[in-house]
Each structure stands twice: as structure tokens, then as C-alpha cells.
Amino acid sequence: MASVVGTFTVDPRARAAAAKRRTRGEGRTAWAFVSPSVLIILGLSVVPVLWSLLLSFQASDLVSPSRWVGLANYRTLAADPLFREAVGHTVVYTALYVPLSVAGGLAIALLLDRKIRLIGLYRTLVFVPFVVSAAAQGVLFSFVLDPEFGAANSLLHQFGLPAQGFFSDPSQALYLLVAISLWSGTGFCVIVYLAGLQSVEPEQVEAARIDGAGRTGVLRYVVLPSLTPVTIFLVLFQAINALQVFDLVFVTTKGGPLGSTTVIVYFIWEKAFKSFTAGYSAAAAYALAVALLVIGVLLQVYQRRVKR
Amino acid sequence: MSDPRTAAPSRRDVLRAAAVLAVAAGLGGCGKSDPETTGGQVTVDLWHGQTDTAKKALDALIAEFNRTHPDIAVIGGGGGVTADSMLQKVTAGLAAGSYPDVAYIFGSDLASITRSPKVADLSGQLQLDAVWPAAKAAITVKDKVRAAPALLDSLCVVYNKKLFAAAGLPAPKAGWTWDDFVATAAKLTNPAKGVFGTGWPGVGDEDTVWRLWPMIWDLGGDVVSEDGKKVGFEQAGEQALATLDKLRTDKSLYVDPKPGGEQLYQVFLGGRMGMVATGPWQLPDILDRKLDYGVVPLPSYSGKAVTISGPDTWTVFDNGSARVKAATEFVRWMLDAQQDVRWDLQGGSLPLSTTTAALPQWKKHAAETSGLQVFVDALETARVRPTITAYPQISEHLGTAIVSVLLGKKSPADALKECVEQSNAVLAVPS
């Protein structure tokens, strides 16, 4: 209150000096308050990131003294067919998961963006799978999709269709993982789009209607453009999630059968904690980090251009 | 709210107070970080990774040790992980410089972990004369004793008597061959009732691989050749894989797609599998289900009995000489027949030594548990995987080969050829 009153009583020069002093004082207090989190971020994020960068230039098994090898880890990585396979699987997974979850999320959000009975219940139900942890999803689906005793094959049998191998079939396992992720990940897109739809200006929609736009016209020229920032956010968020997928793979297939679901992060885990080549694993992790950075920057640039 | 000029010093006070607190906390932390000095008692941090009955048995033993050894305090935390993930947990701990004094490490992982200079050398510290040869081999790396045996098992075949009767088959007998096994499995299989002859874990991990070694040893092969430069299963492996391939084409094999291999045993426990190769740890569950079962040694090609044992170890880590001494004292005490027999009865291990196996408590237990003696007798002919650092990688390649055969993606010859090439490349790297 004192400062508000002060604006009426103190002359402008004195006010500027007081403000300067105040910011300096507040700056110190602010640092006191944020320093615990700064320490945590430095200790748990920045230091490990730098440490793993150093690790990626070493041959290390984590337990015995390591040895500096320069870029050898990266060179081996570029020639490693298993890493190339892991990248391929991750790209397929991402290329399917991101567009399908975002488009599916938009479609469901448009369906749920209306005033009907029990709408709150429907919205909640769509979101529920997202709340289930990936580990629990993995366990759940490995029961449903068990080739011999699962519910899925018994259903196929009822319709007279041949039994499927599911997670035991190298040509199906990766696509099943995409399907499971869609089951849970689409709900998140729905919620974000529903929030985005609330911010579409009703006046613009009305104006478009008066100008003779039909439902598709309104969607195409009014709703979708105003949802662009939301869409860019979702594409980035889902792409990061998809490129980092690990827990679902770990619980359901462990990268198998025959390596058909070995994604990059699983490859990293395997190299660090099963083959004990931590330096090599860190190099793979950095390759992934660079890819994520590039995607992030590209989307940022795109968003800026759209805004202009 | 108040005037900023008068409030400024009070902020400084706050900062000063915070600094004093931080220093005090730091000093307090320093005082605590040296457990060797707490009241003249040496603390031993134990990561055992056990659950359920095994944990209960171990907790009781730890309590007794602490009572009888007032100068040592063993703290039996699980390390926050089960035994399956202990290697990863301990490795991360070693990298971070914060590791236990004793950890439960699988025999097949021991060689990898001993690359760390922090693993204590227990040569000459343990009484190993009466310990089974398989257990002794599993704790020896490069001619040094690097751990104490913690648990011992052997692989035998457990079969469902009811399914054998339903198929009109006689009970299998010791000395049977793999051809008998394949034929029996085919006769037991009944797709209409969802009954399989036998099963195999299909993930390609160690659980998939270790069952193949007795077959390879029986055929005169080995994991690595005499000189350690090449794999030793180039010929034998193909025949062993061909046996699996026959089981697959007969459709008498249930391939468990889930990591962990639990489902395989669930199918057996549910009465839908005639025979399963397993260790004595499975008996408590089978008894719980009141399944009418029998146990026979593994079949062979040659008629000579051979099986595999997968011993687990108590590995001691170096956190200063006082703690190593105390930790060694604890594992030595655990190996003593009086403690070993309690651990075996309640924790599900086979006796670690012949001394324990001769104790009346064990004999009574073995007489009461049908089939248990078969597992103990199998120890006479049990071999273990070599304690070499390249083993996990060879296992990975062989695991892939086995799964390609189990899923019918490759012929035994092609699958083995690729595995041999990759494994030889691993062994060519000097270690």
C-alpha cells in the first residue's frame, strides 16, 4: 500500500531511485527463494547433462576407470546396424503416433465440444487412459494380447478370424505399441484441444456464419487457424514423448521379439546397463538429444512465421 | 506492505539465518557420514532384493546375527529393487560412489561386476571345502573367490501326473533322452483343451538361454572353447536348436512372450502344460496349488546325466577395511550349515554344502517335499556358466538365435551361424 500512496506524494526522481533499490533488494530475496530449486536443477539436470557429454567421449563400463576415446563412440554409432534399426523403429513409431494422436484428439475434442447431457462424464472417460501409467498399460495389454490365453484372440476366434501372434510376432509388435500409446495418449490431446476450443472467438464464428460459411468452412478458416499454437505445442510435446518412449517397451516386449521393438531409448538402456558400454550409450543419448533439439527449434521457427 | 527501506535489513537477517542453518546442516551431515564410528559398532549395508517368504527368512537371520554379534549392525534394506534389477542398481551405485557392503548378485553377472576395483576379494576367507563344486565355480573369477554363495538351484523337469495319465503315458524316468522328451511332449499336447506338452521363455533373455546349456554340454560343446578365443557350441548348438525346432513344428511348445517368464509357470500351474524345466524354487507354488506332480532329471542325448545350476552370490564391496571385515563375517556366518539350513528350508534354496545336506533338519524337509531330492541329486552333475565378462553378450546373441528358432523365423543352422559369428567377434576383443 505504501508504494501506491507514494506514487502520489514522492517526486519521480526519488521514486526511480527507490524502485532501483527495491529491485536490488528484491533480487537478493528472490535468489534466496529460488536457490534451492536452482541447486536442484543444477545438480539433477545440468551437471548430469554435462557429465554424460563427457562420458560420450569415453570408453566406460561405469565401474572400472574409463579411457578417453574422442569421437570413436559416435563413429561406431554411425556404422552400427542395430542403432540404425532402433532409429528406424523410433521414426516409424513417431511418424504414426504423433499425427494420429493429434488428429484423433482434435476429432474427439470437436465431438465433445457441445452442450449435451453427461458431457462432463464423456470428457472424463476420454481422459482416463492417459492417467494410467505406462507400466500398468503394458501389463494390462500383455494380458489382453496374450497369443494363447488373451481376450483379443478369443474375440477374433468368435468372429472366425485366425489367431494372431501379437507381441510374439515381429511384424506386429511395433504397431501394437503405437496402438496402445494412442489409446492413452489421445486423451491428452483431447483435453488440450478442448481448452483451446474455448478460446476460439464466438464473434469470429458468428461473422463467418453470417458471411455464409458452412460447418466445414468455419472449421477450416476460423477454428483450425486459431488452434494453430495449440497444435504446434501438441506436435512438439507428442513428438518428444514418442521419441523418448521406453517404459511401455520395457514392460511389454523388452525390445523383442527379435529386436523388432528396440527403440532408441531402449537401445540406450541396453547398452548402458546390459552390455556395460556406458560411453557408447551416452553417445546414443546425445544423438537423440540433438534430434529433439532440431525438432524443437524447427517447430519454434515455424510458429514464429505463422504468428507473423 | 511495509516500507522497503526498513524491511531491507530484516531480509539480510533472513539470509544470515539461512546461511547459519545451511552450515549447521552441513556439519550435521558430516558427522553422520562415517558410520564406522557410531558407538563402536560397524554398520553393514545389505541389498538383498528378496521378497515374500525369502525376505521373511532373511530378516529373521539378520536379526539373529545382530543379536549374536553386538559389534556389527547389519541393515537389511532391499536396495529398493528386486534381485532381477540388482545389477543395474549396484552398477549405478558404483558409478555414483554410493554402494552397499553386501549385495545379492546373480552368478552370471558376477564377472561383470568384478571389473570394479570395489569388489572385495574373499580368497581364503570362506570355508568352502564342503560347498558343491557348482557353487564354488560360480563364485570364482580368474581363480579368485570374489563372492560367497547365496543360493543354489539345479534344472530338472517337473511334470503334471494328471495330464500324463490322461494321455495314457507312463511317468518319465531318469536316463530318458531328448527324443523321448519330444515324443512325450507331442503326445501330451491337446489343442482342443489348450494343453501344451512343454514351454520355453521366448523373450531372449538369460532365462531363455540358460536352459540350452545342459543340452550343449551333453553334446560335447561348451560356452567358450578351451583357449577362450571362440565359442564352443558351433556344432553342438545346431543339434540343440534342432530339438527346439522339432518341438515347435510339433506345436507342442508354449513360447512365453512376456518378460520375466512368469507366464510359463502360470500355464503349468493352471494344469495346461505337461512338463516344464524349472528349479526347486517353483515347488512351493506347485504345492500351494495342490497339483499332482513329479520331478525327473533333465533328459540327455548321450544317456549321461548333466544339468545346469544357476547359483546366486553375496558379493562384498569395499567401503573401508572395518566394514569389509564385518561384511565378510556376515556372509561367512550365513554359509555356516546351521544358518544355511534355515535359509534353505524357508528361502527355497538347495543346501549350499554337503554338510548342510547331511543335517537331519534338511533330510526331514527333503523327505517331506516330493521331488526335492531329485534337485539335490542333480547337483552332482550340475555345471555352471563360465564366469567371464563376455558371457552376457554371448548370452544375448544366443538368446536371439533361440527366439528366431522358437518363432520359426530362421532355421537352426542359420540362426546359429549368425550367433556364432557375432559371439566370436565379442570374444576377439581382449578382456
Automatic annotation (TrEMBL), chain A:
Know the name of this protein? Sugar ABC transporter permease
Q: Where is the ABC transmembrane type-1 domain?
A: 87-299
List the transmembrane segments.
Answer: 30-54, 91-112, 124-145, 173-197, 218-240, 283-302
| Localization (cell) | Cell membrane
Alphabetical list of SUPFAM superfamilies matching this protein: MetI-like
CDD domains named among the record's database cross-references: TM_PBP2
Alphabetized UniProt keyword annotations: Cell membrane, Membrane, Transmembrane, Transmembrane helix, Transport
Q: Which organism is it from?
A: Kribbella lupini
- A Pfam family found in this protein is BPD_transp_1
Provide the organism lineage as a comma list. Answer: Bacteria, Bacillati, Actinomycetota, Actinomycetes, Propionibacteriales
Q: Which family does it belong to?
A: Belongs to the binding-protein-dependent transport system permease family.
UniProtKB/TrEMBL annotation, chain B:
Under Gene3D superfamilies, the record lists: Periplasmic binding protein-like II (3.40.190.10)
CDD domains noted in UniProt? PBP2_UgpB
Transmembrane segment boundaries:
none
Q: Which UniProt keywords apply?
A: Signal, Transport
PROSITE patterns, sorted = PROKAR_LIPOPROTEIN, TAT
Task: Output the SUPFAM superfamilies linked to this UniProt entry.
Answer: Periplasmic binding protein-like II
Q: Does this entry carry the keyword Cytoplasm?
A: no
The record's family statement is: Belongs to the bacterial solute-binding protein 1 family.
Give the protein name, as stated in the record.
ABC transporter substrate-binding protein
Q: Which organism is it from?
A: Kribbella lupini
